[in-house]
Amino acid sequence: MMGKLQSKISFSSSSRHRYEETKCYPTKAVLQYSPAHHDAVASVASLTPDLCVSGGKDKAVVVYNWRDGTMVRRFLGHEREVTKVSCLPDSGWLFSASRDKTVLMWRLGADSRAARCFSGHDLVVTGLAVSPVFQQLCTGSRDNTVCTWDIETGDCLHRASISRNLVTHLCWVPGESYVIQTSEDKTVRIWDTRDLRVAHAFPPKQHIQMSCDVSLDGRYCVSSSNGFGGDGCEATLWDLRQVRCQVHEFRGHSQSTASCIFLPLGLAVFPAVATSSHDCTVRVWSRDTGACMATTCLDGAGPLTSLAACENSTLLCASSNSGIHLLRFSSVKGLQLQEVATF
User: Is the pLDDT of residue 2 over 60?
Assistant: First the structure.
């Protein structure tokens, strides 16, 4: 996949999509479900068509049925707050990273104890990705290291360290041996997990890269930047077949863009990227043009920390002040994204 450079990239101008100050307006009343967490939620991921998994400052890992607003399981085992969650979809296996320097593996349907502990980082674990194809886990930390692990045995397979590579996020390229990583050194790296070497590093951005995601076809990567007052705050689209430079930027957030994900085809009708920001807004962008197609404001939610896509035109958004927000697409008056529930 990597290194097969084809024709030159065509660029989309970002001048049409410059930052405009975000204004929040009152929204319709939303359903208030029983809260999943008792404090800030750091990460949320989709587990099954009805279930999500989340983790946060209360040290808990929670499996929640977002469709009917009920908690399914609550796992406790970390000594400090949970920073990231991930899962093997439809398998029942969950993973959580923490400030206690460990990653724990949980089994939905088993007892409440962790099935396995992955320990080896020297500082908080801030990156977590799992591959169903290779049965491997990839972790990253503020200790500048990236590790791969055998899920079945818990053994560390490879460990690599790069100076100033404070990992912020990891995501696996679907069906490939590559992992995408963002860092506080403003660089997006592609790791080959077969020997854990850097296969490619994109040109550094101007701001810390906070999050990343890969499209289901493995063609595109998106990363998001921190910032303030519209300086930085963008998400950047990269073509993994053309690794020389960026395709275009998504600009419009006024504060750090903490999360970015590709939406499954059909969720937003057109190829789309969703972003959430510390400015309390979630935005949906056309992947191909860079235009902002929909925005919703979660006023009072505090920094929005994580996004997950579900079926039935549904998005989940984790927040610092008000739990997890259930958002739904509507096309009654053009594309709209509306908050329908909070838990």
Answer: no
